[in-house]
Amino acid sequence: MTRWALVIGASSGMGRATALKLAADGYDILGVHLDRRAALPRIEALRAEIEGMGRRTVLFNSNISASTNRKAVLDHIRETVAATEGISVLVHSVAFGVTKPLLGPGSATEEDLTITCGVMGHDLVHWVRGLLERNLFESPGRIFAMTSEGDRRAWPSYGPVAAAKCVLEAHTRQLAVELAARKITVNCILAGVTDTPALRVIPGHDELAAAALRRNPHGRLTTPEDVANVVSLLCDSRAAWITGSVVSCDGGESVAG
């Protein structure tokens, strides 16, 4: 039986690593990304690597901050996925937000806060609703969203994203309860500081990474592949009782100091 995984944010970082790991695990991959023309060779490389594993892949380059675009992608997915197939895994790995202070010159505007919480927080609910409305989600199923230690720590200019992560975790708990009858689990993965394009747009990211490296008892930063491996583990049928949780994937970084 064909198993599809839908990865939102598939072109880089944790999303890319997770798409590749799930393909290696035997899933066909639906990927959504937002990239300019210069990045398209990287996307084609991702496609080639997945197809080289003998898996199907369909990639959508779309700005999903617009609800009309998200709905168009969902409709295209319904046309792509055969009537006898469905999506078993949804991975929401979106880094599309504003990193600005909350107060003072250059601070986040009302629109900045709304967009960041919308795309990195509420967007998870919109994708889940869209899949269910189109009868695309399999039972049992798995849903994962990517959070960070910034949900509970204050980092310079991270306020808008921190708020979005809190929204995301709240939705994870609620969705876990509402989807239990369908045997669909919902969990957040809390990665340690990871060197990704999303990290590099945070002001002071070099200092953030250096501090994490000093704290981490393993003496290294978390990698996207570490996160992908945790997602892979939680897709196992033996993990069906883990839901509504924030699962740390940081090598002990968050408890070391």
TrEMBL record:
The keyword Oxidoreductase applies. It holds the Pfam family adh_short_C2. InterPro entries: NAD(P)-bd_dom_sf, SDR_DHRS6-like, SDR_fam. The keyword Lipid biosynthesis does not apply. Keywords: Oxidoreductase. PANTHER family: DIHYDROANTICAPSIN 7-DEHYDROGENASE. Belongs to the short-chain dehydrogenases/reductases (SDR) family. This is SDR family oxidoreductase.
